[in-house]
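QA checklist item 7 of 12: single-chain prediction sanity check.
[x] sequence parsed
[x] length recorded as 275
[x] structure emitted
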Amino acid sequence: MALPPDTKSASNGPSGNDRAAAVKAAQQDVFVREVDDALRQDQMENFIKGKGIALAVLIVVVLAGFGGWLYWNHHQKTLREEHAEAYVQALDAVQAGNLADAKSKLKALTGADAKGNTVPARLMLAAIAQEQDDAKGAATIYDEVAADASAPQPLRDLATVRSVAARFDDMKPQDVVARLKPLAAPGNAWFGVAGEMVGMAYLKMDKPGQAGPLFAAIAKDENSSEGLRSRARQLAALLGVDAVADVVDAQGEPIADTAGAKTTNEDAKGGKAAE
């Protein structure tokens, strides 16, 4: 009688050959991983031997540079705070009338490291010199600021105007015109102040035909101070130039009260005729 086939053993697991093949494949996989690990380790050792020193030096340099930048940035911030505090103290000293102490603090701010405070400190020193009747010393400082290409242009223009004002009586009128004429133009921030000095210089040069229209333009300049406009209006009237702006609305009514200015103009003309 024939026996039935043994299906139990076949269904319960792989045969001996299959198990042997699986073990061999696992061994080969482990071997390949070990070879790869050894190869990577060898490559890393070769890289470190060849370029590791240069890489380490580069890392040290980068870290040192970053640390130096942090220190420099902190140092600059500290200096700015110290300079700002010194400038405030100098202003307080000026207001208190202690000009010697103010000058001492301001001179410490005129160095290159003061940066943003340098030009204001120099202008303040010039103003103190002028207050102490040292017009020549004040003008010298103003001229230095005016010639400083690194200074902001508005401050250079301010220095130019104040330099001429400090020694106006001692300057040749043609030199006054040469220095201030670029600023004595309508629309310029210094038109009124610079224009008045240029106009006076024209009068010294016996050029009333150029002075009169300039004074009239200043009198009509709404950006100039009222005191300056009033002086310019009177000077223009004495020179025979109408300095009253004819500004009316759509109905022909004056926008501003110019009656007082017209009266001043007529009075000035009458005074000139009387002379």
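[x] summary fact logged: The first helix runs from residue 7 to 12.
[ ] second reviewer sign-off
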